[in-house]
Design a protein that fits this description.
Strand content: 15-25%
Structural class: alpha+beta
CATH class of the largest domain: Mainly Beta
Number of strands: 20
Shape: elongated
Distance between the termini: 138 Å
Largest sheet: 14 strands, antiparallel
CATH topology of the largest domain: Beta-galactosidase, Chain A, domain 5
Number of helices: 15
């Protein structure tokens, strides 16, 4: 650093020092400045005091308003943390929480999930039940309060919101050796706090139906929000689409239903103003459906009456549900067994009075479910054997008369004579005592049994978890072959029972088509050859439809198809066509002197022929 630079810094420092000395205030000015600063501090302090007084005034106003509002009675129960109470009766555990005073979970001790743990029907993280009353100021919503426990015996508990003078009590009682819970709501001195004329308790119920079984698609198909009207009709929301419905009639119960388990809320007084909602969930979320129900029941705020509810949390077992009807507080049976869907009225009747008695009788022997289904198939086939034999003999009679039918085809080769040919064919059948419809009617008689079992087997909880051969669970699909990628139409597995069912279906179709071809001639036989290719498409469609279905159902259909093949083979081997033809000719000769005999169809064809001829003359 040179001499000139140092000199410059010294001069700058002198200038700054001199300016600072010159700009200092005098003693009078310093005293005035101090007085001004004291005044500012006093003003700030006054502002702070005013703000604090305003806050205190507002708090006093809120407290005064709260003193006149229903929530003030329960103010000390708003912020408290809740604790869980567990009730048990050996069959199930019911979890209650003092926060909200409601049911938050339920486990069935006698049923296991895929991990071997007790089945959880209601779960604390995805279920909520709350009660709401219309107050003069703020509504009383139980989920905002923590109840006090008045008593807990391990099977029954009572919780209270409020004081001795004014309160809402909720009592839960788990009935012995059952899946039924009695819920009683009672009050004292709440009428002055409620809206004038308020005599209703509003219920908000929400739950996510968790996947409990291996096959998501199949289980989701059989999970539904089901309800029963007080007039006795049971209905359910659409299983495949999101749906919201508000029934016009009061409801006796509302059920959040899985394939094999349900939680049901019942009341003897009927749920009014109900709004029900169901929404399917995506695969992989662990949930099947989202269920919501907004319900309303009578409530007496004076305490003179009680509001009674019940909750069934248990298996969809037909006999268990029917036994729980006797525990219901309703005057009439709530028909809880309707939760086991057995099909439309005709098929329901077949299941109730034929299939189910046979099934439970066989089950009582202690046999494996695979053997039970085998014996059930054999018994059903024995019961319908007379109609099967009649159907086969009808086809056999038409087969042995085929040479006579061929003569008619030669006699009427032109398409214009088709009606005459058909008329003489019906006349021929009538002469030999053959009914062309004889093979159809017996098959129609068997169809209700086939469809009834389609409804019964997937809803039969006795098949759940039952192993047979390579199937580890007859209530779900079997997967001897499995891969990690979903393939179009097939999915991620191949069901062997489904494949066997479809193969036997193809064989039965081939046998049926051959029988019909052997009994037809001319254009009919030609048309049947074209139709048979379309008939073979059905078993192929069955494969893609049933690959995700219950292996027990596919196993039954496989056994049914296999026994049908064996029966057809037996009937063919034991039927002598020559003897059958001789029998038909003997019938014809015996009745050859009878007056002209026309079957119903032949008579109608003759009438149509006459009408056609009259039209031509015109």
């Amino acid at each position: 650093m040179d001499k000139n630079t140092v000199t410059g810094f010294i001069l700058i420092a002198l200038v700054l020092i001199g300016f600072s000395w010159y700009s200092q205030p005098s003693a009078e000015q310093a005293a005035e400045l101090a007085r001004q600063q004291d005044s500012i501090a006093q003003v700030e302090e006054q502002v702070r005091r005013a703000q604090a007084e305003a806050e205190e005034a507002r708090a006093a106003q809120v407290a005064a308003a709260a003193a006149a509002d229903s929530s003030a009675l329960f103010f000390d129960q708003r912020a408290a943390e809740g604790r869980r109470l567990v009730l048990s009766n050996g069959l199930m555990e019911l979890m209650l929480n003092t926060k909200g005073g409601a049911v938050e979970g339920a486990r069935l001790l006698g049923y296991k999930d895929l991990q071997g743990r007790p089945i959880s029907i209601l779960r604390p993280d995805s279920s909520e039940l709350s009660f709401l009353l219309s107050g003069k100021g703020e509504n009383i919503d139980t989920k905002q309060y923590t109840f006090r426990v008045l008593g807990n015996t391990g099977r029954a508990a009572t919780m209270r919101l409020g004081s001795e003078e004014r309160h809402l009590d909720i009592h839960y009682e788990l009935l012995p050796e059952s899946y039924m819970v009695n819920i009683t709501l009672s009050s004292r001195g709440l009428s002055p706090l409620l809206q004038p004329g308020s005599d209703k308790l509003f219920i908000q119920w929400h739950s996510m139906a968790a996947q409990q079984e291996k096959g998501f698609d199949f289980e989701q198909r059989y999970a539904s929000l089901t309800f029963r009207e007080t007039d006795g009709d049971t209905d359910y929301l659409n299983e495949t689409k999101e749906k919201t419905e508000s029934p016009d009639e009061p409801l006796a119960w509302v059920a959040f239903k899985n394939q094999f388990f349900s939680s049901v809320l019942l009341t003897p007084d009927g749920f009014s103003e109900a709004t029900l909602h169901s929404a399917p969930q995506e695969k992989g979320t662990g949930n099947l459906k989202q269920y919501d129900a907004a319900l309303c029941v009578p409530f007496d705020g004076s305490g003179a009456g009680q509001t009674r509810l019940q909750m069934y949390v248990g298996p969809n077992d037909f006999h268990i549900l029917k036994a729980h009807n006797k525990l219901a507080l309703t005057g009439e049976s709530p028909e809880l067994e309707d939760l086991v869907y057995l099909g439309w009225p005709l098929f329901k009747w077949v299941n109730r009075w034929i299939i189910m008695p046979l099934f439970y009788w066989l089950t009582s022997w202690g046999l494996s479910m695979g053997v039970v289904l085998l014996l059930l198939t054999v018994i059903v086939k024995i019961l319908v054997y007379p109609t099967t034999k009649k159907s086969y003999l009808s086809s056999a009679k038409m087969r042995v008369l085929k040479p006579e039918i061929d003569k008619l085809s030669e006699k009427y080769p032109r398409q214009e004579d088709a009606m005459k040919k058909q008329q003489e064919m019906m006349q021929l059948y009538s002469q030999y005592g053959v009914s062309p419809m004889g093979g159809c009617l017996p098959m129609l008689i068997q169809m209700p049994i086939w469809i009834a079992l389609f409804n019964f087997v997937p809803n039969c909880i006795q098949l759940r978890g039952e192993r047979f051969l390579w199937a580890d669970d007859l209530s779900s699909y079997d997967e001897l072959l499995h891969w990690n990628t979903d393939l179009w139409l097939i999915g991620d597995h191949l069901s062997i029972f489904c494949l066997l069912f479809c193969l036997t279906n193809i064989v039965n179709t081939w046998i049926s088509m051959r029988q019909q071809q052997h009994s037809m001639s001319g254009d009919q036989a030609q048309q049947m050859k074209m139709m048979q290719y379309m008939m073979y498409i059905m078993p192929l469609m069955f494969f893609f439809i049933f690959n995700n279905y219950s292996s027990g159902l596919c196993y039954y259909y496989f056994l049914s198809g296999l026994t049908s093949i064996l029966i057809m083979w037996y009937l063919r081997k034991t039927t002598d066509d020559a003897k059958l033809l001789a029998k038909l000719k003997a019938y014809r000769d015996q009745h050859k002197n009878d007056p002209k005999r026309l079957s119903g169809m032949a008579a109608r064809l003759e009438a149509l022929q006459k009408m056609a001829e009259e039209q031509k003359k015109k």
